[in-house]
Every structure is written in C-alpha cells, then in structure tokens.
Amino acid sequence: MSIAIVVHGGAGGWNKSEEHREIALQACIEAAERGRAILLTGGSALDAVEAAVNILEDCPVLDAGRGSYPNTEGEVEMDALIMDGGDLSMGAIAAIQRVRHPISLARKIMRDSGHNFLVGQGADAFADEIGFPRCDVEELLVNEPSESTIGDTVGAVALDENGNLAAATSTGGTANKRPGRVGDSPLVGSGAYADNWTAAVSATGYGEALMRVVISKQTCDFVGLGLSAQAACESAIRVLEERTGGEGGLIAVDARGKVGVAFNTRRMPHAYAIDDQAIVANS
To answer: 101 in a domain, yes or no?
Structure first.
C-alpha cells in the first residue's frame, strides 16, 4: 500500500512579498516532510495530518495558530477540523482563543470530549479542563491585516500504509471578521472530509462560498463516481465558480494514493509526497 501526504498554506490572494511566499512554501515542504516521516515509520494518517498542520500553524505568514488575524474587536478566534476516514470520526472547534495548535485541540475533542464539535466558551472550557496548553494573544498576532487575507487557511490530507485516510484543516479566520463568525474550515464536508471509501480533502478560500457547496464532501463524491483525485478537485472548483462565483482551493488524496490539487485564486502554496519520491512543491 502506498503512503501519501498533501499540504496547503491557503488559497488567499497572496498579494504579499516574495519573501513571505517563500516562507509559506518552505513551511509546506517541511510539513510534507514531517508527515511523510510519520507515515514511512508506520504512523497513522491522523498522526501525519496533525503533525503537518502543527508546522503550518507555527508559520507566521500563514493564517492559522501563530499568524492568525484579529476580528473587529482585536481578538483571535480560530477554527479547526480533523477527520478519520476509517470510521468517519471527527473533532472540530470554532472561535477558540489563546491556543497555539487548534488542530491538536480538535483531535482531543474527537477522542476525549464525548462530542464532535465545541465552540467558543465551551471549547475554551474544555481546553482548560484537560490542561491543553494556552498562550497569550500576542503570540498569535504577528501579522498586519493590511493585505488580502481571505482563505489563508492551512490543511493536510494523508493516506497511511494500512489504507486509512485522514484530513485536517485549521484557520485563524478572515481578518476583521465579526466576533463569532465561523467559516467553512471547521464544518464537516466543507472545510475537510475523509472517507476510506473515496478520498480525503481539505479546502481553503472564501468560506461563505465554500460551505454553500459543501465542497470537500462534493470532491469525495466525485471520486466515488470514478473521477481521479485531480479531476475531482478540478470539478469541485468548477462547481464553486458556477454556483457561487467563489474562490478557493482544494487538496486531495484518494484511497489508491493518487493526489489532486486545484485552485482558482492567484496562488496556493502546497506540497505533496508519495512514498519515498521527491517532494513536489509549488505556489
């Protein structure tokens, strides 16, 4: 059985300096390397996507974890979703504050909370209850929201040697959003989806449009109809354009280890690794 991992750093406008784009691309390469190392030593797809997204959450030029943007009240509210394609279990959080790695808290919710999705004060209370590491908001606010930042979500999808798929998506949200606004990222089927019968997908872009077409589940459904991972991503982006006029991007890996990447924005830093082949990266 092949192993594979794909990661992205967001399909925002990327009207940023070349230095920022290079930092983002290097973070994607590092994340793919880290995820692959886990997979090559027999680790699970869930372990691989969590570790990969942790690296992206630590990258200051990406809008997730460290690098998140403030809302209109100057607060950082982050969202994340992780999903296991084996039994369709999932964990999600929305409007969480003062955590460096939201995706890891989402996985804790999946395993330890008895629920699938916690938001706001409930998510904060759960984090404190289990002793999840907290941080000061100043550790997260390292960017100026002066450029196009929509869709700078991060994500990863993976296939492990046992044939299990997993997906993970994490975001700091749109800059200057209303307090309490939640986009597509933590919504199952929109921000991500994983199903061993079809594929694992992570989405990025303008959340208000992505959620309207349930884009990640739709991509998996296209794979179920016989499309390749690449064709499924391209078809889902076409649906997004035709039905909503929205912009975004997708990464996918199917049950056979074939990968797909598609976006209709200017850029989407991404990288993928299949077995022990050289990492492919582009922005």
So the answer is: yes
Q: Two tokens at 61?
A: 């030029």
Q: Which of 170, 148, 150 is closest to 82 using CA atoms? A: 170
Exposure string of 4-33, with b = 16+ CB inside 10 Å and e = fewer, is bbbbbbbbbbbebeeebbebbbebbbbbbb
Asked if residue 282 belongs to a domain, the reply is no
Tell me how far apart the alpha carbons of residues 259 and 266 are, in angstroms, rounded to a whole number.
Answer: 21
Query: 193: domain CATH number?
Result: 3.60.20.30
Q: How far is CA 204 from CA 66, 77, 96, 259, 268, in A?
A: 18, 17, 19, 16, 9
Low-confidence residues in the chain, pLDDT < 70: 13-16, 144-152
Give the pTM. Answer: 0.96
The answer to whether the beta carbons of residues 265 and 4 sit under 8 Å apart is no
Domain enclosing residue 92, as ranges: 4-273
Does residue 264 sit within a domain? yes
Give the closest residue to 204 by CA, choosing from 174, 228, 227.
174
Among 171, 244, 181, residue whose Cα is nearest residue 210: 244
pLDDT tens track for 241-257: 999 999 999 999 999 99
Cα 124 to the center of its chain, rounded Å: 21
Give the residue numbers marked as catalytic.
153
- Tell me how many domains the chain contains: 1
CB 248 within 8 A of CB 210: yes
Q: Residue 22: inside a domain, yes or no? A: yes
